[in-house]
Design goal:
With about 425 residues, the chain is α+β, with helices and mostly antiparallel strands. Helix content is about 40%, strand content about 15%. The strands form four sheets. The chain has a five-stranded mixed beta sheet. A hairpin with a 2-residue loop joins strand 4 and strand 5. Helix 4 packs across helix 5 and helix 6 packs across helix 9. The longest helix has 30 residues.
Length: about 425
């Protein structure tokens, strides 16, 4: 995966939680499966934009593109679904060009794919920059009249467009050459030089409203950039604050972060039940707070419900430490590492399993729903006879031991060494497609 800037616009956490930047830097930057799959769609979009007058997305159907890419060396197969998603984005771009030609008949409309954006440069920063999926600029007589930044999203999770720090950062970097001052393109900034403002747009085909946008005056974008620059400055502080919220969802440091727990404990401390009962244990204090919820008003109930995530995060860290000590061979009274739920995995390469299932007259959509069906799914298929299921399970299915998990056991009872008589599979035994 390509290296991101320290304050990448695509990281929406740092504007809300300045302390997360230094803490997340401790963890490896590993792209998830969904992100890697989305990279293939972005690559097709870029190829089509760069060759728009020669090739449409359908031209690439059945092709494998992006071979030798660092995220997926084998490349991405271009199927009909992916092609249709890219076509939706291209249709929006085409529509916008037509609308802008009508609005500015004398102007030049320029569409750029994967253009660099450096909003941080306006504020003397070299760590706040990124790459825009699509930029549309309207220019006339060496002046810029309007800028639109379009971000393509390939996932299903709804992304809000208004106030989106990622798109505002991208927009800031793209308007910078037109509004910044001097050879270094820094402040003072002159938003009046782009009189028709800025639009930020999201194209997200897998959502019910796939195209959404928000229009800003250029001054509004500049004001937002100034606020973001102040947030960027806070990330430089040795005591950069940690702030919990919705932005914590994908934070790498979340399992070890104290922000949620601290804020939740503050909620508990505000309860009269807690501050007036000295000498009680933590569990008694918590029990006193939530003991008779039927007498609480709605505001208090919602405060306690919001506090739960932080309290659970604190105990998650306790579980993690107990797990580590048990894994190191230390004895922990009342706890042990025991196998979790087992799972079935295919014990032959994907191509072999596909042949077997096709021979059983299973349709392609069932085999790839959109990935290879699991053994459990196949063995529940009503189209297979009991004999066929038994043969498949014996010849092609291996039972893989479940992951170790922290389990409550009888206190004082010495546990036997787990897996003494079990042969565990290694990652080498697991097919690469799972």
């Amino acid at each position: 995966m390509g290296t991101h800037a320290r304050l990448s616009p695509s990281n929406h956490r740092w504007p809300h939680c300045p302390g997360s930047v230094a803490l997340e830097a401790q963890y490896p930057d590993i792209a998830g499966d969904a992100a890697i799959d989305g990279t293939g769609t972005h690559l097709l979009l870029e190829m089509c934009l760069n060759n728009y007058y020669y090739y449409t997305p359908s031209h690439y159907e059945g092709w494998t593109i992006g071979t030798k890419h660092e995220d997926k060396p084998e490349g991405w197969l271009m199927d009909q679904d992916r092609i249709e998603r890219v076509e939706m984005c291209l249709n929006y771009i085409k529509r916008r060009k037509e609308e802008l030609h009508q609005q500015f008949p004398e102007a030049t409309i320029t569409v750029q794919a994967e253009s660099r954006s450096d909003p941080g440069g306006m504020f003397g920063r070299k760590d706040w920059q990124g790459t825009c999926d699509v930029t549309i600029e309207v220019t006339h007589d060496n002046a810029c009249l309007f800028v639109e930044v379009i971000d393509y999203k390939d996932g299903r999770g709804w992304v809000h467009v208004e106030g989106n720090s990622q798109l505002l950062s991208y927009a800031g970097g793209r308007i910078r050459p037109w509004i910044a001052s001097g050879p270094d393109l820094v402040r003072p900034l002159r938003p009046e030089r782009i009189p028709h403002g800025v639009r930020i747009s999201i194209v997200q085909p897998k959502t019910s409203q796939p195209v959404r946008y928000h229009d800003y005056t250029t001054s509004d974008v500049v004001d937002a950039l100034v606020d973001l620059s102040w947030a960027a400055t806070k990330t430089d502080w040795d005591d950069a604050p940690l702030v919990s919220g919705k932005h914590c969802q994908w934070c790498k440091h979340k399992p070890n972060c104290t922000a949620q727990a601290n804020e939740s404990l503050e909620v508990l401390k505000m309860s009269n039940d807690v501050v007036t009962q000295d000498g009680q244990s933590l569990f008694e204090l918590i029990g006193g707070v939530v003991g008779d919820v039927t007498e609480m008003d709605t505001k208090r109930l919602t405060e306690l419900a919001d506090a739960r995530a932080g309290i659970e995060a604190a105990f998650d860290r306790v579980d993690k430490e107990l797990f580590a000590r048990l894994e190191q061979g230390q004895e922990v009274d009342g706890y042990a590492l025991k196998p979790g739920r087992s799972s079935r995995i295919w014990n032959e390469p994907e191509e072999e399993i596909v042949k077997v299932l096709k021979n059983r007259k299973l349709k392609r959509d069932y085999i790839y729903p959109p990935k290879l069906a699991s053994p459990a799914q196949v063995l529940k298929n009503p189209n297979l006879t009991d004999d066929q299921k038994e043969k498949i399970e014996k010849q092609y299915v291996t039972v893989k031991a479940g992951e170790l998990k922290l389990t409550k056991v009888t206190r004082g009872k010495k546990e036997e060494v787990p897996f003494k008589d079990v042969v565990q599979t290694t990652t080498d035994d697991i097919p690469s497609f799972l």
